[in-house]
Design goal:
The chain is 53% helix and 16% strand. The protein has 653 residues and is α+β, with helices and mostly antiparallel strands.
C-alpha cells in the first residue's frame, strides 16, 4: 500500500511541504509571539531588563505568600493594578540593591551567613531536642519557596549583601535634639482660633432656579447623568464543591476506610501525668547539669520507695512553678502537647508507672502516669457522613486540575454557550441582570472580581457573543461568563433626572451665596473687628484638629505668626465658606514634654528613612532605572497627594 509513496517521492514531499509547513509557521509564529510577549521588558535597571514573565512570577509568589498568611484576604486586592505595580516597584528595588552590592563588591561571608541562620527564629525552630538541625524540615522550608537548601542559603546570602548597601546610611543617620525640636515644635504647634461658618445648606432656600437654568446645566453636564453600561449575563463556576458533587464513593470503600482509621477517627487518646522537674538549661556548665542530675536521681529513689508521697515531694522539690503547687499535676494532654522526650516517656508508660529520670531542654523530669483516657470507639453510622466528605475532598483535590482543563477547553472550544460545559461537568448556570463594569458595593463571589468583570465586558465577549475565557477568581475557583444582553452607557433624559439636576443647581448657587456673604463679612471685620460676632475660641493643632475642617486648620496654621491676631477666609468648596480669626500661638503643653525623647527618636527614624529613600533615588539615577509600565491612576494620584502633603509649608503659601 506504500508503493505510491515510493514511486512518487518528490510529489509527496511537495504535498507534505504545502500541508505541514504553513501550519508549523502559523503555530510557530504564534508561539514565538507569546514567548516574546512574556519576555517584554517592563523595567530596566543598569542596562538589564526585568521582563513581563519575571514580574508575573514575582507577583504570583507574593500573592501566594499573602494568601498563605491571611487566607481571608480579598482576592481582588491581590489582583488589582495597584498591587501588581507595587510588586514591580519592589522587584526594581531588589534589582537596584543587587546591582549596587555587586558594583561595590559587597559580599556575605560563610561565617556571617551561618551566624544569621543560627539567630533566625524560623531556622531555630527546626532544631531537634539534641540541638541538631532537622534536615527534612529544613528541606521542606526551602521547598516551600521553590528552592533547594543550597538555593535558599544563596538567596539569604544575596539578601544580606543587598542589606549592606543601605546599612551605611541607616546606621549613621542621626538628628540633633535642637533640629528635631524645631521640626516637632512646628508640627505640634497650637493656635487659638475663632471660626464663623457660612454653610451652603443655609442658603438653599433662597435659590429657585428657572427651567432655562436647569436645562442649561443639564446640557453642559450630561456626563453627570449617565446610566452606566449594563449587561444581563450568565456564568458558571468550577470550584472544589462542584467537583465534589460529581464524585460518588462506593459503600465498600467507606467501610474499608472506617476499618483502617476507626481509632484515629474516634478521637485521640489523652493521658494525665504528674512530674517533678529539676530545672537546668541545656547549655549550662557540665558541673551544674551533673548536680541537677544527682538531685533528680535522689528524688527518684525517694519516690520509688514511697510512691504515695509523689505529690508531696513534687510540692516541695519541683522547680516547675506552674504545677508544683498542684503536686506536679499536668492534667490531661494529647500527643504533641509536650516536648518529645517527655511525651515519648509518658505514652510508653502504664497507668501508675513511675518513669526513670527523663532529660529534656527544661532539665530532668520524674514522671508518674496517673490516668489514661481512651476515646470510645464510634460506629460506622456515626462517622459515615464525615468519612464520605473527607474522601470526596481528597479525590476532588486530585481531580480538580483535570476538571479545570476540561472547563477551560470547553468554554473556549464551544464558545457560543455555557450549556456544554455545564452539562459536561454538572455545573449550575446562574443568570444576573444589571451587571456593570465595576463591582457593586458589598458584592461577593464571582461578580466582585474586577478581573472577571473586565473579561466579561471585553469587546470579544460583547460584540461576538462568545464565552469569556476561564478566569481564576480565587484559589481553586474558575469562572466563565456569557453576555445575554448588553446596554451601552447612555445619557438619561432630563425628565428622568430633573430632580437631580435641580439639586445640583441649587447646591452650586447656594455655595456661591455662602461664599459671597462670607467674603463680604471678612472684608467688613478686617475693617472693624468690633462688628464681628464670634463664637468661643478653640485651640487646634495638627494632632488635635477638634471638629475643624482640614482646610480651616491648614489656613490657621499658615497664618503669619508675627501678624497675629489676623483674619483668614477659607473656601470650603461645595460646603460653603469660613471666616477664621487666628488669635495667638499656644506653646506646647508642658506635660507633653515628658515624651520629648520618644518624639525625637521617632523623628530621627523618619529622618533616617528619608535619607535611605534619597540614597535609593540616587542609586536609581546612577543605574538609569526605567519603569516602562505606567503607574495605575490610583497609585499616581496617591503619589501626587503624598508630594503635596510632604511639601514645606513655605512652598504652599
Amino acid at each position: 500500500m506504500f508503493d505510491i509513496f515510493r514511486k512518487h517521492t518528490k510529489i509527496m514531499m511537495m504535498v507534505l511541504f504545502l500541508l505541514i509547513i504553513p501550519s508549523f509557521v502559523l503555530f510557530g509564529i504564534d508561539g514565538y509571539n507569546r514567548m516574546k510577549e512574556s519576555d517584554t521588558a517592563v523595567a530596566r535597571v543598569g542596562g538589564h531588563d526585568i521582563t513581563q514573565s519575571q514580574w508575573d512570577s514575582a507577583h504570583k509568589t507574593e500573592a501566594d505568600r499573602v494568601r498563605a498568611s491571611a487566607p481571608n484576604v480579598d482576592v481582588k486586592l491581590l489582583d488589582s493594578p495597584a498591587a501588581r505595580y507595587a510588586t514591580l516597584e519592589r522587584l526594581v528595588r531588589e534589582r537596584v540593591m543587587a546591582v549596587a552590592a555587586e558594583k561595590a563588591k559587597l559580599s556575605t561571608s560563610d561565617a556571617r551567613l551561618a551566624r544569621y541562620l543560627q539567630e533566625d527564629p524560623t531556622i531555630a525552630s527546626l532544631r531537634k531536642p539534641d540541638g541538631k538541625m532537622d534536615m527534612d524540615r529544613y528541606r521542606q522550608l526551602a521547598a516551600s519557596q521553590g528552592l533547594t537548601p543550597e538555593g535558599f542559603e544563596n538567596s539569604v546570602r544575596q539578601d544580606l549583601s543587598k542589606q549592606q548597601v543601605e546599612a551605611g546610611v541607616r546606621g549613621t543617620g542621626f538628628v540633633t535634639p535642637v533640629v528635631a525640636d524645631v521640626a516637632l515644635n512646628a508640627f505640634f504647634e497650637k493656635r487659638e482660633i475663632q471660626v464663623v461658618n457660612f454653610l451652603a445648606a443655609g442658603y438653599a432656600s433662597k435659590v429657585n432656579p428657572t427651567d432655562a437654568e436647569l436645562d442649561a446645566f443639564y446640557q453642559a453636564n450630561q456626563e453627570l447623568f449617565q446610566a452606566p453600561e449594563q449587561a444581563k449575563v450568565e456564568y458558571v463556576v468550577l470550584d472544589m464543591n462542584s467537583v465534589k458533587k460529581s464524585i460518588e464513593i462506593p459503600e465498600a470503600d467507606l467501610k474499608a476506610y472506617y476499618d483502617q482509621n476507626v481509632a484515629r477517627l474516634s478521637g485521640n487518646e489523652e493521658r494525665r501525668a504528674s512530674h517533678i522537674l529539676i530545672n537546668v538549661p541545656k547549655d549550662a556548665p557540665a558541673a551544674d547539669r551533673q548536680q541537677a542530675r544527682t538531685k533528680a536521681d535522689e528524688l527518684l529513689k525517694a519516690v520509688r520507695a514511697a510512691p504515695a508521697s509523689f505529690a508531696d515531694l513534687a510540692q516541695k522539690n519541683s522547680q516547675d512553678t506552674g504545677s508544683a503547687a498542684k503536686g506536679g499535676d499536668l492534667d490531661f494532654f494529647v500527643r504533641g502537647a509536650m516536648v518529645k522526650p517527655f511525651e515519648d516517656a509518658v505514652f510508653a508508660m502504664k497507668k501508675g508507672d513511675i518513669s526513670e529520670v527523663v532529660e529534656s531542654d527544661f532539665g530532668y523530669h520524674i514522671i508518674q502516669l496517673t490516668d489514661v483516657k481512651t476515646p470510645k470507639q464510634r460506629s460506622f453510622d456515626e462517622l459515615r457522613t464525615s468519612i464520605e466528605s473527607d474522601l470526596k475532598t481528597q479525590q476532588a483535590q486530585r481531580k480538580y486540575a483535570e476538571f479545570a482543563e476540561i472547563f477551560t477547553n470547553t468554554v473556549y472550544e464551544q464558545a457560543d454557550s455555557l450549556k456544554p460545559v455545564a452539562d459536561k461537568l454538572k455545573l449550575d448556570i446562574k443568570t444576573v441582570d444589571n451587571v456593570t463594569r465595576q463591582s457593586a458595593p458589598g458584592a461577593i463571589g464571582v461578580l466582585s472580581s474586577d478581573k472577571f468583570l473586565a473579561t466579561l465586558f471585553s469587546s470579544d465577549t460583547i460584540d461576538k457573543k462568545r464565552n469569556t475565557e476561564a478566569v481564576e477568581v480565587a484559589v481553586n475557583q474558575l469562572a466563565a461568563g456569557h453576555v445575554v444582553a448588553h446596554q451601552p452607557a447612555r445619557v438619561l433624559p432630563l425628565v428622568e433626572v430633573r430632580q437631580q439636576v435641580r439639586d445640583r443647581v441649587v447646591a452650586a448657587k447656594a455655595a456661591e451665596l455662602a461664599k459671597k456673604e462670607g467674603g463680604d463679612k471678612l472684608a467688613q471685620w478686617k475693617r472693624d473687628a468690633a462688628t464681628a460676632s464670634l463664637p468661643a475660641a478653640v485651640t487646634v493643632s495638627r494632632d488635635q484638629a477638634q471638629i475643624v475642617p482640614a482646610p480651616v486648620l491648614i489656613a490657621a496654621l499658615r497664618a503669619d505668626a508675627a501678624a497675629l491676631p489676623t483674619w483668614v477666609g477659607v473656601d470650603l468648596g461645595a460646603t460653603g465658606y469660613a471666616v477664621v480669626r487666628v488669635n495667638k500661638v499656644v506653646p506646647r503643653n508642658e506635660a507633653v514634654q515628658a515624651s520629648a525623647k520618644q518624639d525625637r527618636d521617632q523623628y530621627a527614624q523618619w529622618w533616617t528613612a528619608a535619607e535611605a529613600q534619597a540614597y535609593y533615588s540616587v542609586l536609581k539615577e546612577r543605574l538609569k532605572v526605567e519603569i516602562l509600565i505606567p503607574a495605575p491612576v490610583s497609585a499616581a494620584v496617591a503619589k501626587s497627594k503624598s508630594v503635596v502633603q510632604t511639601a514645606p509649608a513655605s512652598a504652599n503659601k
